[in-house]
Design a protein that fits this description.
Blueprint lengths: L5 E6 L5 H11 L4 E8 L2 H13 L6 E3 L3 H8 L3 E4 L6 H10 L3 E5 L6 H14 L3 E4 L6 H12 L5 E11 L2 H4 L8 H4 L2 H4 L1 H12 L3 E9 L5 H7 L27 H6 L4 H4 L17 E8 L4 E10 L2 E9 L2 E9 L13 E12 L5 E2 L8 H14 L14 H20 L3 E2 L20 H4 L12
Parallel strand pairs: 1-2, 1-4, 2-3, 4-5, 5-6, 7-10
Antiparallel strand pairs: 7-11, 8-9, 8-15, 9-10, 11-12, 12-13, 13-14
Helix pairs in contact: 4-5, 5-15, 6-10, 10-15
The structure holds nicotinamide-adenine-dinucleotide.
The site of nicotinamide-adenine-dinucleotide has 24 residues, from loops.
């Protein structure tokens, strides 16, 4: 019998997927129904099935090779994709081909070929492909969008954006599947997809060219030696230096990580605590990129994955002034049971420096929850049957997913070739996403007789 609820299945049942299961089975149970679960690891599959059963939901489980069968048997309206990055495209396309809508975690995919396949399949099937860019929903980042839309600093001509990953969360990318480019696309795709998407959306434009340089200069065997740790261990679990190494991750003592990964290692051999200093790591820990945009703006961007604090600083230079935003995040490791990416409000601020008027600090918009309060707001926008009109157009589709990953793919290419890479050479004729446009404020209408004294904070 049709319950009238929207039917969802999930594929990929690791740390990130827990938020979606919880939302479907608990928070949005009145309007949503979790009708199928799929993962390549039988242990995680059974665990999630048992978790749902404890909450009174009998949800059928399917192995990865039974994904198509799951779609036929459970008749979902939408498929939520939270597998490791390199498999997103396959599940997204198979789901859309079977007549389902898709909600996929970022990055939409990891290279331009997979990206083209997603765009073609979406066009052919007409299904909705939603990319879960939660960072847009963090209240301070929405506030930055609000201020830019108001025209307070005029037209943005350039952006300086610097993202720091710390030696807890940042180091963790070097332990996991993310450390191999074939799985994650490297941090320029896996992580910077968030940052490139934010800038595209903040500026309401799309990137044209990317030039990047990058290297792995910290997570190396030599760094372990310099600290006096052997760094020779394949993994933390049996490392002889576990007592001394500041990067030691004790899977046995962290219950969430133990249940999710250590207990299920026997099924697929996936090791969650590989040594961050091992030599076979493929991804960069230090990247600098220059990006040009279709609207004439340009960006200086950097990513550092061994910083002493986690967060970012972004500056917008506009025709009427400058906007500066800094955000510090609390320390966490993915899946350790703490709130991921929670903001430290005392380390987070937005300041506006008008060209010829006093500077001021904006009263910060805040919310509780994962990723600076973004996750619950995004879930409401995705799962609430009537989310209402969003002034900021935060819901992202395959076009936004494509433009953000293509920046990262171009950065990867540029790092190899030493040359700038055109986005159009990766995917031609890609349409711009729908973005709200900023209010036009001409400099003459704001400052017909500018006061040229130096203004400090009032
Ligand atoms: N938006 C965010 O802030 C955010 C945060 C964390 C993770 N993510 C994204 O969520 C996704 C999952 O990340 P995670 O941290 O949960 O990783 P994870 O390693 O904890 O989980 C990945 C899951 O995918 C399963 N899997 C692997 N290959 C599969 C296949 N071929 N078919 C089916 N299942 C397969 C694994 O068994 C595992 O259960 C990634 O794409 C990641 O980028 C997004």
């Amino acid at each position: 019998m049709n319950s009238g609820k929207k039917r969802y299945v999930q594929v990929g049942l690791g740390a990130r997927s827990e938020m979606y299961s919880q939302a479907l089975v608990e928070t949005y149970a009145d309007t949503c129904e979790l009708v199928g679960l799929c993962d390549s690891n039988p242990g995680r599959l059974q665990d999630r099935q048992a978790w749902a059963a404890q909450r009174g939901r009998k949800v059928p489980a399917f192995s990865a090779d039974q994904f198509d069968r799951m779609l036929v048997e459970t008749r979902p309206d939408a498929v939520i994709v939270t597998t490791i990055d390199c498999y997103h495209d396959d599940y997204i396309c198979r789901a859309m081909d079977a007549g389902c809508d898709v909600i996929t975690e970022k990055p939409m995919t990891t290279d331009e070929m997979k990206c083209r396949r997603i765009l073609e399949t979406q066009k052919k099937t007409g299904r909705s492909c939603r990319v879960a860019f939660n960072y847009r929903y963090s209240p301070p980042r929405t506030q930055v969008k609000d201020l830019l839309l108001s025209g307070v600093i005029g037209r943005v001509l350039s952006v300086d954006f610097h993202w720091m990953l710390d030696t807890f969360h940042g180091a963790d990318y070097f332990r996991r599947w993310h450390s191999y480019k074939k799985y994650s696309g490297g941090l320029m795709v896996h992580k910077a997809t968030h940052h490139f998407d934010l800038v595209n959306w903040w500026l309401s434009t799309v990137p044209q060219t990317v030039f990047a340089v990058g290297q792995r200069c910290f997570y190396l065997p030599a760094t372990a030696q310099a600290f006096g740790w052997s760094g020779a261990g394949a993994r933390c679990l049996d490392c002889p230096d576990s007592e001394r190494c500041a990067f030691h991750l004790d899977l046995r003592s962290l219950q969430g990580l133990k249940n999710l990964y250590l207990a299920n290692e026997k099924y697929d051999g996936y090791i969650r605590d590989r040594c961050v200093f091992r030599s076979d790591i493929e991804i960069e820990d230090t990247v600098a990129a220059t990006v040009t945009y279709q609207n004439g703006a340009q960006m200086s961007y950097s990513l550092n994955a061994f910083a002493a604090w986690e967060g970012y600083q972004v500056v917008f230079n506009g025709t009427l002034g400058r906007l500066e935003h800094k955000c510090e995040e609390q320390v966490y490791v993915s899946g350790d049971g703490t709130i991921p990416g929670a903001l430290k409000t005392e380390g987070t601020w937005i300041k506006v420096f008008p060209l010829f008027a006093p500077a001021y600090e904006a009263k910060l918009w805040v919310a509780e929850g994962g990723h600076g309060g973004a996750d619950p707001i995004m879930l409401a926008d995705i799962l609430n049957p009537d989310p209402g009109r969003d002034l900021y157009l935060r819901a992202a589709d395959q076009r936004a997913g494509a433009y953000s990953i293509l920046c990262g793919v171009a950065a990867n290419r540029s790092m190899l070739s030493g040359r700038p890479v055109d986005i159009a050479s990766l995917v031609a004729d890609l349409q711009a996403p729908d973005y709200p446009q900023a209010k036009e404020r001409s400099p003459s209408s704001v400052y017909s007789r500018p006061d040229r004294k130096t203004w400090l904070f009032s």
